[in-house]
Every structure is written in C-alpha cells, then in structure tokens.
Amino acid sequence: MIPGTLVPIVFFLCITYAIKAFLDARVRQRMVSEGVGEELMRSLLQEEEQRRRLGSLRWGIVLVALAIGFGIVQAAGWDQINAGVVAVLAAATGLGNLAYFMAARRMH
C-alpha cells in the first residue's frame, strides 16, 4: 500500500468511529432525560453489551481462521496471488464465519 494513502484511510475511520460514539452517547442522554424506565434501560444496555461481546467473538474467530489460511498459503510456498491463494483465504473466512455462527447459536 502506498504510504500516502494510509493516512486518509485511518483519518476517515477515526472520524466515522467518533461520529458513532457521539450518536450512541446522544441516544443514551435522550433516554435518560426522557425518563425511560430503569428496567428498559437495563435491558437495552445488556443487549448492547451482548452484541459487543458477540462482535468480538466473531472477529476473533474470523481472524484466527484467516491466520490459519495465511499459514496454509505460506506452507504451500505460494508467493504470488493467484486463484488458489484467494480460494484458501475465502474458504478460511467462510469457515470462520460458520464457526462463529455455531458458537453464537450455542450461547443462546
């Protein structure tokens, strides 16, 4: 990747995350100011925490599967991007998502 393109991409991601954090805080502030019931507030926060945990689980499983895919590519000695390399990485990503689906289903 060209070094000059990395800074704008990271800058865009930071701005996007800041806007999301601001909007989440604003929604919480409005819920508190409008007197949303404590039980509803607690259930919303628990649901958000569960969603965050499952998101971390998903990314963890998918990244481990991709690491295994890259390991397979390295072990096979492929040093050029070709259909086989792309297929191995796509399969690793798909298997990681399937593993997440099974793990999330067991948690519920």
Question: What secondary-structure arrangement, pairings included, does this model have?
Answer:
Blueprint: H1 3-33, H2 38-76, H3 83-107
Number of domains: 2
Describe the sheet with the most strands: none
**H/E element sequence:** HHH
Q: Spans with pLDDT under 50 lasting ≥5 residues?
A: none
Determine the strand fraction and express it as a percent band. under 5%
Rg over CA atoms, rounded to whole Å, is 20 Å
Total beta-strand segments: 0
Given helix and strand content, the structural type is mainly alpha
**What multimeric state do the chains show?**
single chain
Helix percent band:
over 70%
Q: What does the overall shape look like? A: flat
- Counted by DSSP, the helix tally is 3
Mean pLDDT: 88
Question: What does this molecule look like?
Answer:
This protein is mostly helical and 108 residues long. The protein has 2 domains: 36 residues; 59 residues. The chain has 3 helices and no strands. α2 packs antiparallel against α3. The longest helix is centred in the middle third of the chain and has 39 residues.
In short:
The chain is mainly alpha-helical and 108 residues long.
Main attributes of the structure:
88% helix, 108 residues, 2 domains, mainly alpha, single chain
